[in-house]
Every structure is written in C-alpha cells, then in structure tokens.
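Q: Could you predict the 3D structure of Chalcone isomerase domain-containing protein?
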Amino acid sequence: MMMSLRFPFLFSQPTNLPGSGSSSQNNNRTTPRPRFSAAFAAATAASIGAAAAAGVAVVSQNPNHPFFQHAANLLLPNSSSLLWASVSLADGSAPVVEPKSGVSFPAVLGSSLTLLGVGLRKKSILGLKNIDVYAFGVYANGDDVKKFLSEKYGNLSAFELKNSKDFNNDLMEADISMTVRLQIVYSKLSIKSIRSAYEESVGSRLQKFSGSDNKELLQRFTSQFKDEYKLPRGSLVELSKEPGYVLKTIIDGKEIGSIESKLLCRSILDLYIGEDPFDRRAKDDVDLNVASLLQQK
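A: Sure. Here are the predicted structure tokens for Chalcone isomerase domain-containing protein:
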C-alpha cells in the first residue's frame, strides 16, 4: 500500500455552524468540526509575533491544528519550512464538511485528486427565496498543479495568488486534472432543472470566453442530462476534467458523457473558481490551498 504525506489544508467556515443534533440520512454527511477561517488567520496575524503567539495558543490545545502552519505560510511563505516542521502535521485524510448543508467531502478523490475547497450552490426563486441546490467540492491533481504552475507562481504567497488574475486564468487554462463533485441537497430538484440551469450558466461562459454562442457545444453538454436520470437528495454528479481537456460527466458513479473541449472545461471551472463564482468562500479556499500545494517541495 502506497502512503503519502500531505500538508494540512485550511477550509473556511462561517461562525455559526449547523446544530449537531440533527440526524443524518446520508453516509456522506458528518457532523461539522470547527475550523479556523483562513481570512481570520490572515487578518489577526498582523505580524509574525502575533502569528506565532496565536499558533502556540491553538497548538497547546490541539497539536494537530493547521492554524499555526497556515498563519506562518500566509505571512512568510519563503521562510515557512522551519515553522511547519516544528508542529505535527494534521491528518490530511479526514473528510471536510460544507458547513451550511452539512455535506462532507472526502479529502482525496480516487487516488490522486486532492480537495481544495467546498461550497454551496444557491438559487433564487422569483427573487423572493434562496434555496440550497447542491453542495460541491473542487478537487485537483497536486502533481499537475505543481508541474504546470510552480515555475511561475511557486514563490508567491497566498495573498499574492489570490489577487493575481493571471494565476486564476492559468489554473483553469492549464491541462490540470480537476473534478467538481456535486451532492444534491434540494429534495425536489429535477434533471430538467439542472439542464436548464447549465444552459444558462455554461452558455454565458461559452459566450464570454469565445465571443460566440457555441450552441452546438452547449447542446452536446446539456443533452447528457437526460430525463431518465433522477436526482434525489444525496445524488452525486461529477464534472471531471481529464488530461487532454476531456470533460467527463458522471452521475452516481455512471459516466453519462465525455466531450473533448478546452473551452467547455474552462467554462465549467469558471462557475466554481472564476471571477464570479457560485460561492466566493470556496474560491478563496481553492486559492489558499493551491498556494499550499505550490510551496510543497
């Protein structure tokens, strides 16, 4: 059995987590575990002394907590090796919970995809009410990330990456294996609704990145979501970008279609980690955790 040693990643969480007393009806759901927000760490650690003090305070209660490592990483990205080595690495195999829905995502998908961020897709109904449609996790192959991005971005801090438009574009444009995993949380969602939503959201991205409507490409993608497929609460949909810019669509473990198109892959990723993502918190976590990957040697 092959073992890998991974640095712990940090995932943002809101202040108020859902109550732990509700019963779980899905094996992929777990009780959320409190985690420090990356934004909180960066804001409060105004100096390395403050970061070290905060880290020591947290580590004294939980030696495996990643707060200290990430605070140091945000502030001194080029001098973090000693600081990281002084604290035990957190367990990188524990699932990560999307806190608003309570849905958990495995830290590793398959054998090579690492979870970088989790979020929630909401949809407004008639401008009167927002419903939670699905929770999602964004995964990437860490080796691919380092192969395609390290030379250009390996020496930049998380803050610098977060504010770099070129970095965000390169992450989506490079031939990096990535998967967006969706878990349905809205019990009345139909496959027709998914098809219609993607016609609108993916269609606008195809227009944005190519300057034309690309109706044929859009129809090839959305037609994969046939009426015969059902999406009860807990269903899993995976949009997987494979090497060579092949987008595979999988519903509950069954592949329903495969399309080779760099434009389509870019348009799908833009929904989740682009300039105007479905969940800003998820995008911020992806930026921070990609920075963490790039600083691993």
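Q: Anything worth pointing out?
A: The first helix runs from residue 38 to 44.
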